[in-house]
Design goal:
Length: 391
């Protein structure tokens, strides 16, 4: 059996592959990576939800790869971050960051988000063609998270490029180089914040460092994680949602007629085309059973939110976009202690962006056939390289 996640069709249409795999078994052993290596892939919704919350599935990558020779040269801020850790280290770091992304702080950011959206759309003219990824879905979240972290405006395009390069599947040298570029940059930014205290997230993190809640390396790694995770997934969320609506005209018309319905439609849009296809690395610390399948200790376990969100056992007619569906149980943001802490911010950005689009450009349509759209070549992210639309 060949690795199904390297099927040439996987990036353009993962759902047909997910369906085929899930119909055989919601949890199964598949070959991955080099010859002789394998992982367990979780495609069922109930099984994925269980896996996300199972403490026997560790995210401590350093522990898993300890003693193994590797040619990789990732910056520690990328390879050793909160997302790649378990309690109690994870609990301590998440406790510092989570309070910054609760409903209150995000509500305070909404006027700024709306200002950024309006600024990006002001240069758009009806009847012209734009790349919605390049002109809105990518710059909006990177501008917002850079503003929160205090990244100077002149550096934001460069930082965004480094972040994007971290997901260059099949190009390890490019990934390693970008990890050092962004890690070194954020180290310098943190030291600047330490020397010139002021407002913003970095100042808060530096304060926690001074109080002993975070060490200096953790401040940098947390900043890098928020920078990367704070815009990569939201970029995909916005672009995937716009594409789904354009491909389902009745749903788009409904939101044009009543933009107030957008907030309640976000869960279904996230379920329909999740911005994360395969969740970040986990492995079994002991033998366990999942979906009736015995998983031995010490093997990678790949949880696929993109597959789980299309599981017909949990969502009737999952291939249909249904804005009336209660899709709140979707797993696009994960589940359990590692659930995306930036979810409230991502939802706010998507809601405001979609509201502005359907209000200002009600006749928006694709500029190319759907089959000509190019998808990013990474199994982690589900996102478009570009989304050309005619306004």
């Amino acid at each position: 059996m060949t690795d199904p996640l390297h099927d040439p069709l996987f990036f353009s249409d993962p759902y047909s592959i997910y369906d085929r795999l899930r119909s055989a078994s919601p949890v199964q052993k598949i070959p991955t990576g080099s010859k002789g290596h394998y992982s367990y892939l979780v495609t069922g919704h109930a099984e994925a939800r269980q896996a996300f919350a199972d403490p026997r599935l560790s995210k401590d990558t350093a522990r898993f790869f300890a003693g193994q020779r590797s040619r990789r040269n990732l910056h520690p801020a990328v390879s050793k971050n909160m997302l790649a850790s378990d309690p109690p280290q994870h609990t301590r770091q998440r406790g510092v960051a989570a309070k910054l992304f609760t409903t209150g702080p995000v509500a305070e950011m909404r006027p700024y988000i709306a200002q950024v959206v309006d600024g990006l759309l002001d240069g758009w003219k009806p009847g012209t063609q734009v790349d919605l990824v390049e002109r809105l879905a990518a710059p909006l979240p990177v501008t917002v998270i850079c503003q929160m972290l205090g990244v100077p405006e002149a550096d934001r395009v460069m930082v965004s490029r480094w972040s994007n390069d971290l997901f260059a599947a099949g190009e390890p040298d490019r990934i390693d180089a970008s990890s050092h570029a962004i890690g070194d940059y954020m180290t310098s930014l943190v030291e600047t914040a330490r020397g010139k205290p002021g407002g913003g997230l970095l100042h808060t993190f530096v304060q926690h460092s001074d109080e002993g809640l975070l060490d200096r390396d953790e401040v940098v790694s947390l900043a890098v994680l928020l920078l990367v995770a704070g815009h990569e997934t939201t970029t995909n969320f916005i672009a995937n949602a716009v594409l789904a609506l354009i491909q389902h005209p009745p749903s788009l018309t409904r939101l044009r007629q009543d933009p107030g319905l957008i907030a309640g439609s976000l869960d279904e849009l996230l379920r329909f085309d999740s911005p994360v296809g395969i969740a970040t690395f986990r492995y079994s610390t002991e033998a366990l059973q999942l979906g009736g399948i015995e998983i031995p200790a010490g093997v990678p376990v790949l949880i696929a939110p993109g597959a789980a969100n299309r599981d017909p056992a949990s969502f009737a007619e999952p291939q249909q976009l249904d804005l009336d569906r209660n899709a709140s149980s979707h797993l696009a943001f994960g589940h359990g202690i590692h659930r995306c802490l930036g979810a409230p911010l991502a939802r706010a950005e998507a809601e405001i962006a979609l509201g502005a689009l359907v209000t200002r450009f009600p006749g928006m349509r694709l500029a190319v056939p759907s089959e000509d759209l190019e998808w990013r070549q990474t199994r982690l992210m589900r996102g478009l390289k570009a989304l050309p639309v005619i306004l």
